[in-house]
Write a structure and sequence with these properties.
The complex is a heterodimer of chains A (about 150) and B (about 425). Chain A contains seven helices and two strands. With about 150 residues, chain A is mainly alpha-helical. Chain A has a two-stranded antiparallel sheet. Chain B has two domains: about 15-40 and about 305-415, Aspartate Aminotransferase, domain 1 (Alpha-Beta Complex); about 50-305, Type I PLP-dependent aspartate aminotransferase-like (Major domain) (Aspartate Aminotransferase, domain 2), CATH 3.40.640. Chain B has 14 helices and 17 strands. In chain B, the strands form five sheets. A seven-stranded mixed beta sheet of chain B has the order 4-10-9-8-7-5-6, sandwiched between helices. In chain B, strands 13-14-17-16 form a four-stranded antiparallel beta sheet, covered by helices on one side. Classes of the chains: A mainly alpha (about 150), B alpha/beta (about 425). The complex binds pyridoxal-5'-phosphate. Pyridoxal-5'-phosphate binds near residues 134, 209 and 212 of chain B.
């Protein structure tokens, strides 16, 4: 699935949930199912700034694709991280860097979450894109035979 | 709904009071609002809103300056408000009441002026382990400036001050003690009479942060014999941006001014300025006139209901809330002082306070989560924050029942 298709699927999943308590229930469930990050990556340099609760995010490159793992000390945050990872994991840095992200607004997360939470979500998004851009720049320069 | 326990004192007519507060009639997410974030700020009764409007419609004018009718009216209303505050605190004179922007502003004023006037390198300022940041940082800044040292009265696991440690900290190096009357994060009521008596035995003045006290219990500055006492208007049903500093006349006379400007001067030449008398010496510039007048309206409203009655009502609320919360599986109190008031802090299992707070919010229940501007308290208990429910005169037993039901529902989702 492309990043766009994944977003459309999430939007459709959420549209079946009638009220916000149900949507939270779903987010919490995703949070509980989030595969855990390797404990060794739960270090300050993996912490995302701007989150009131703590979020650790780690990236690995496998066959030219980025794989994200993450954790948080708050379950709702973990659910939101899980949405993010579902959308981005398994795509090339170029795809991620160039993707247009609309599911957050479409689901209504930006208007319904508490502001600290939605700010956290935005800094997470920024961090994912930064990772992607960094990987992309690295592979470009390697292609061109230059050192970074 | 839970069974309401024996109400020993029908202290106040809470249903009637609630009708005086327009915001309590609002709904959030289509649900009737349960407002339990009163330690952060209280809602305002209609009379406070009317007073603000009345001022701007009928009285608006600058104070202490004009010969014209309106300015005299505005000045009279402003100075009457000072008298209302003075009588509320039982100050000897209304000159001992300084209007400020709030607790934070009042503490900054004292820290700055006391620092400049009284503190030498090597001196010590004492605060407690449960202070709000606004009763830590101004002293820290002043100590850095003056080469003085900030020392901390420790507390125990229940959130009570360790009085033996306090006595040991009391040396002749201590020049002032700044202490919260009631902790905003734990609800602890501190033994301020004992502390003031011990301090005065060594001629050390005491500042009380009464931001969480004046709206919950009678406060009499003469009976306490406290040297400085500060609070915020917005936490006692008054407008934001208003606050009070009470200081004993001899102290306020002795300290140098804080800010310079209009109103605080008697004569100005480029060579030298002669400062004005109390209280104007500490009120530079045009004050929040409408705010001070509306604050007085809030205080009169409180007096009309009776602080003792409010206290009796809220004590039952706190007791009931503690009883009911205790029955929630996995809930633990953060701060378990024998004597507490106004607020209850807690955590449920290892559920993050933000998660719980967010799901309570979605059920129309406003509580506070986080460190409550008291990071050292959270550090002491090794927690990221707490969930805090805090009460006011308009809080009902039904509010607490909805809180308890809301926590149970949220916890079931989050576990
Ligand atoms: C104990 C205590 N001190 C100081 C403050 C600061 O009050 P303000 O922000 O109104 O200046 C608060 C408010 O949260 C408080 O609870």
């Amino acid at each position: 699935m492309t990043i766009k298709e994944k977003q459309d699927e999430l939007i459709s999943d959420f549209s079946f949930l009638e009220n916000w308590m149900d949507k939270y229930e779903h987010i919490i469930q995703l949070g509980k199912e989030l595969p855990l990050i390797d404990e060794k990556y739960k270090t300050p340099d993996h912490l995302i700034k701007g989150c009131q609760s703590q979020v650790w995010l780690h990236t690995d490159m496998q066959d030219g694709k980025l794989i994200f793992t993450a954790d948080s000390d708050a379950v709702i945050t973990k659910g939101l991280v899980s949405l993010m990872i579902t959308v981005f994991s398994g795509h090339t840095p170029k795809e991620i860097a160039e993707s247009e992200i609309y599911f957050i607004d479409a689901i209504g997360l930006s208007s319904h979450l508490s502001p600290t939470r939605s700010n956290g979500l935005l800094s997470m998004l920024k961090q994912v894109k930064l990772y992607a851009i960094a990987y992309e720049a690295k592979s470009q320069s390697q292609k061109n035979g230059k050192e970074l | 709904m839970q069974h309401v326990p024996d109400i020993t004192v029908p202290a106040i007519d809470v249903e009637k009071i609630r009708k005086d507060f327009p915001l309590l009639q609002e709904k959030v997410y289509g649900l009737p609002l349960v407002y339990l974030d009163n330690a952060a700020t209280t809602q305002k009764p209609q009379i406070v809103l009317d007073t603000l409007m009345h001022y701007y419609i009928h009285l608006n004018s600058n104070v202490h300056r004009g010969v014209h009718h309106l300015s005299q009216e505005a000045t009279a209303a402003y100075e009457d408000s000072r008298k209302t505050v003075a009588s509320f605190l039982n100050a000897r004179k209304s000159e001992e009441i300084i209007f400020t922007k709030g607790t934070t502003d009042s503490i900054n004023l004292v820290a700055y002026s006391f620092g400049r006037g009284e503190i030498k390198p090597g001196d010590v300022v004492l605060v407690s382990a449960m202070e709000h940041h606004s009763n830590i940082v101004p002293w820290q800044m002043m100590c850095e400036d003056r080469g003085a040292e900030l020392k901390v009265i420790p507390m125990d696991e229940n959130g009570e001050l360790i009085m033996s440690a306090f006595t040991e900290l009391l040396t002749d190096k201590v020049k002032i003690i700044a202490l919260t009357y009631v902790s905003n994060s734990l609800g602890t009521v501190n033994p301020v009479r004992d502390i003031i008596a011990q301090a005065h035995a060594r001629n050390i003045p005491v500042l009380l942060d009464a931001a969480q006290a004046v709206q919950h219990m009678p406060v009499d500055v003469q009976e306490l014999d406290v040297d400085f006492l500060v609070f915020s208007g917005h936490k006692i049903y008054g407008p934001t941006g208003t606050g009070v500093l009470y200081g004993k006349e001899e102290w306020l006379d002795r300290l140098p001014p804080y800010q310079g400007g209009g109103d605080m001067i008697k004569t100005v030449t480029f060579a030298k300025t002669i400062y004005n008398v109390l209280p104007y010496k500490f009120e530079a510039g045009t004050p929040d006139i409408s705010g001070a007048i509306a604050l007085a309206a809030a205080i009169k409203y409180v007096q009309q209901i009776g602080v003792e009655n409010i206290q009796a009502w809220e004590e039952q609320l706190v007791e009931y809330a503690a009883q009911q919360l205790q029955q929630i599986e996995g809930l633990r109190f953060i701060g378990n002082a024998k004597h507490r008031s106004g607020a209850i802090s807690f955590l449920v299992d290892d559920i993050h306070p933000y998660d719980l707070g967010e799901l309570l919010d979605k059920q129309g229940i406003a509580i506070r989560t986080g460190h409550h501007c008291a990071e050292p308290v959270m550090g002491f208990f090794c927690i990221p924050g707490t969930v805090r429910a805090s009460f006011a005169m308009y809080t009902t037993f039904e509010d607490i029942d909805r809180l308890v039901a809301g926590i149970k529902k949220a916890a079931a989702m989050l576990r």
